[in-house]
Amino acid sequence: MNTLYDSRKLTSYAQNLLKASGLDEAIAMSVAETLVEGDLLGHDTHGLGLLASYLKEIETGNMRSSGSPLVLSDKPAALLWDGQRLPGPWLLNLAYKELAPRAKSMGIASLAIRRSHHIACLAVYLMRALQDGFLMVLASSDANSASVAPYGGTQAVFTPNPIAVGFPVGGNSGVMVDISASITTNGMTNRKFKAGEKFEHEWLMTAKGELTNDPAVMFATPPGTLLGVGGLTHGHKGYGLSLMVEALTAGLAGRGRADPKEGWGATVHVTLYDINAFSGEDEFQRQMDYVAQLCKNNVPRDPSKPVRLPGQAAFTRRQSQSANGVQLHPSIEPSLKDAETKYGFKLSDCVI
Question: Do both 97 and 44 map to the same domain?
């Protein structure tokens, strides 16, 4: 029988651990809420599965525990921050509060953040934006590491470089598209490697350019790489996405792979569009709801698997888990044992 956890207790548990490790209270709450939301939506590699690593980053000083971002440039609709290696969820929370009124005033507002720490689950931020009637574009890269080779190459240059878009459709629901430029992610690769598992398909490549489903190649010497979206035949698509994200993040932020490494982190781009500044909410919904219905009513290849919109399953899962309890990936509890022993808080206290 699967263990289920109370989402509110999970948030308090995560916040308590983050505070005990040295994180300021307000920042700890923002990070805890974001991680638990990731699990509620079903993105369990980017929810509480990150907590143990975040705690270690705080304890070693690699993730800054207090402070505010430095404003490097501030124009009415375009900003640049130095995140000073503060937690990414906290910075994205501040970014949304800063951008929302500007987007309402000017129709669009963008922010680039250099030197953020990891930003966790992108879908969490999309959900907040679309619920407020915005269209959000969010992209992230990490110039401190590399695991994806350019198309035709065998040496890593990029991280998975996700880009995400969220917008409202059909009343209170919405579309959340979160696409990595690689076929799979570093988080899933690390999880499978630790569990001694292999991928179902050959989504990785050895340093010699041979296809494999074994995540161990990422830890070999020399290391292998993750395949870009499109694989060996159409990998130019993933390559193009990678370059696009590098331009939106490192290029606009003025800090990236050309600079010294500082450790696990992120360079971020976020743009909010006020739908009413363009065709207006009614026309936007008329167009997008129509397209959504064309998709959902499409005759499926497998009748047991009807076509759904990106994010539809996540919204359904969030509603169910909020009411009935959160199912955590089995790797999360053992990953937190050391922190529980050190700080005295127990994940078991969150069981329903």
Answer: yes
Domain of residue 278 covers 7-183+227-288+329-347
CA-closest candidate to residue 277, choices 104, 141, 149: 104
How confident is the model over 98-104, as a mean pLDDT? Answer: 98
What is the rounded distance in angstroms from the CA atom of residue 29 to the CA atom of residue 174? 26
Task: Identify whether residues 143 and 162 lie together within a single domain.
Answer: yes
135, 207: one domain:
no
Alpha helices per DSSP H over 77-209: 88-106, 122-131, 186-195
Model pLDDT for residues 264-274, shown as the tens digit of each residue: 999 999 999 99
Sheet harboring 173-179: ordered strands across?
Answer: 70-75, 78-82, 108-116, 266-274, 134-141, 163-169, 173-179
Strand 225-226: give its sheet, edge to edge: 211-212, 204-205, 225-226
Name the pLDDT band for 173 (thresholds 50, 70, 90).
confident
